[in-house]
Structure formats: structure tokens, C-alpha cells
Structure prediction request, 336 residues.
Amino acid sequence: MDNVRVIEVKRSIFESNDKDADKLRGELKESKTFLLNLMSSPGSGKTTTLKRTIETLKDKYRIGVMEADIDSDVDAKAIAELGVKSIQLHTGGMCHLDADMTRQGIKELDVSDVDFAILENVGNLVCPAEFDTGSTKNAMILSVPEGHDKPLKYPLMFSICDVVLINKMDVAPYFDFDLEKCKEYILMRNPKAKIIPICAKTGEGIGAWADWLSEQIDEAIR
Amino acid sequence: MHELGVVFRIIDDLTEVGKENELEKIHSVTLQLGEVSGVVPSLLEDAWKWAAARTELMKDSELIIETLPAVTYCEDCKSEYETVAHGKICPNCGSEHTYLLKGNEFMIKEIAAT
Prediction:
């Protein structure tokens, strides 16, 4: 033990993931694929919103979906029924996906014939926010029953999102959900966030969401 | 909440450091953890013990955690205060226009190795 040496590492734990993420973003740009990282808490309507989105845009873009889950393949099956390419990623108990896992998923999905790839992240408002997946844009869904105060409770998630969808607007009258307050809280954390109220069940706001997406996809795959 | 994933990340990083420096054994790893980094030290230690035991390089190594204090800055009264004690609201003037100066760090500081 006399020759023990102290080596200064000085490395941020998140730094190597950030590097991997930047690299993946570059590769996706090369292959002209737009990757959307979709995040939310469990039960906010991610899969239903995704199905609506796919139905609206599948004639316009070649779509591929990666469903991340701790276990099971129920979501990937539901998506495959819509006739788009989909794979299931199992995180094996992990609460989020990092850039390396996303890269493996992209490889398995094979994006050579995909313009619009979607990563449905693990349902969780904490961990996915801390790990850059390498996506082109980040989106999150907040549903009305969760309450308008969530941007205050999960500030990091709201601060890293390019767009926030407020889902289940059809049940807003039954909950004390204050849309204006919610928007104010989101913008307090992230002045650049685009906020779109939707209802995946009735189709409300899906047009505005599809327009926003098309704009982003066109820019990325041009 | 994601301590195990973080530990895998540290192990990958240190495996690389081990190769670069031709190390045989890492005896201790010193981390710097901000008070509001969201990582729970006790869970991190448990995850470390479990995962490090599965590598030759880091087996039985000691994990040393240095805590870095969290400090928030108030834009209205230009003061700094302890984040953990007061949160988002400035204790000096009651303003909400505050931001975190430091305290969310998560660094591998150094290792002792042969």
C-alpha cells in the first residue's frame, strides 16, 4: 500500500452522459432524423397522446417509436397496431433512460428510414429530467388531475422542456385546475416553453401540437 | 432516486481512468455532492457497495462523500442565503426571484489507487 497515489479526477458525473447525448444528437442530424423525448408522470396520457399524434402525422412522416418501460410490452404493442415501427426498451428497473441506452434503442429501431423518432421515456418527473437523452427536442405532458402546481414541485423537468402539453382538458371543470396559473408557473421556470392545452381523448389541441411538431421536424430533416 | 444508475456511470468513468493510468486497484473514491443534487448519500453508498464488488478494480474500495453547501441568490435584495434552510423564498426580503448559485454539483473529485 505504500505506492498508493491520489489521482485527481474532477469529473462531473453527468458530464459523460452530456457528451454521449451531444454525440447522438449530431448523428441523428446526419441521418436526418428528428428525435422527440416525451416525458410525464405515470397515467398522464402519454401513450394515448402518442397514438393521436401518430394518427395525425403518419401520412406525412415516416415514424418510429421507442417505448421505454421498466417491464412489459403493452405500450409497444398498442403502437405497433397503428402500423408504425416500434420497439420496447426495458430499463431493467432503472427510473430513466440515458444517452447510451437511447443510442442502443436508436440502433435497434434502425432510423435509416425514419424521419420522426419518438422516445416514450419512463413515467417519472424527476430522473428523466436529469439525463439528456440526445433528443432533438424535449416534450412533457402534464395532465389536469395532477394539478396546476406541478411546475413548482418539479422545476427541473419544466425547465428543460421545449414544449409542455396540458392534457385531459375535458375534465378541467371537475378539478380545481387553474390553466392561467399553471402557464404562469411554467413560464416562471422556463420563459421559452411552448404551452399547448390538449385533450388526447377528444382531439382538442392536437392540431396545434401537430403544427408545432411539423415545424420542428421539417427544420431537422431538411 | 437514480442512485444505482449514477453508480454505474461512476464505475464506467473510473474504469476508463483506471485504463488511462494503468491502475490495478482503486482503494478509495472521493465524491463531491451538492446538498440539493437530489442524490441520497446512504442509498448511493449501498448501491456503490453492491456494484463495485462486481469489478476487480473497485472491489472493497471506500466511498468518501464530501457535501457541498447549497447557496441561493436573491435578485431583488442581492443577498445570498442557505438554500436548505429557506428554499425558494428569500429570508431577507421575501422575494421569489431567486436562483441557485451552487449546491447541485455531483463530481468525482479524486481516487486513491495503486
